[in-house]
Amino acid sequence: MIFPGAAVFAMAPDGAARSAPAFALRSSDAELVRRVLSETGVVREPPRPSLASYVAAWSEAIARWIADFFSARPELAQGIVTAMEFVAIGVVTTAAVLLIVVLFRRASRRMPAEPPTPPGWSRMPEPTPPAELDRSAWKAELEACLARGDVAGALEALWWWLAASLSLEVPVDPSWTTRELLVKARRPELIGTSAALDVLMYGRGIPSPAEVRACLARFEQRLA
Description:
The protein is mostly helical. Among the domains are: 73-110; 135-223, no CATH class. The protein contains ten helices and no strands. The chain has helices spanning 6-11, 14-19, 30-40, 51-72, 74-110, 135-147, 151-165, 178-184, 191-202, 209-223. α7 packs parallel to α10 (209-223) and α9 packs antiparallel against α10. The longest helix is centred in the middle third of the chain and has 37 residues, at 74-110.
């Protein structure tokens, strides 16, 4: 390998060659160097690490610390895993129960509802009492039911009292509605009063004994 200064040493005298250095250092023109660096665009400062590299380094350090922490405490890691399993089982169970409730509600909404009973066309409840009793016997039965607090029985007796008071030419059919009963008896003028009886028998609230007696009094007044 031939160094750049080899030709100089070869041409120089022996004494000068031994005394002169192999490489001669000369100071450069600072302004010239600055201009060259500026024109060529040479990067003079090392680039700083990016934010992503900084975050990645921190994440790697934290992950390594967590791994070392749980490696030194295996029982703690096992406990956390067990707790997470219980939490997962609880979430799945809750979701299954909610799904069953939602499906049950949807199925119940799709079930056909019972057709509503037209006003004034209510039917008598079962069991059906015998139709051979007269109106006085049914009135006595009404009062006996009210005396023992049986309002439903008193209303049933009131219906049969009305049927016995109409003097029908055909036997009373227990499946008749109140309107049918009055039509069979040819007493259409009592249909308005019979609506009050239907409200007492099939309304949402529980009527009082006074309301039952008031309904009986209105029928007695109309039948007089």
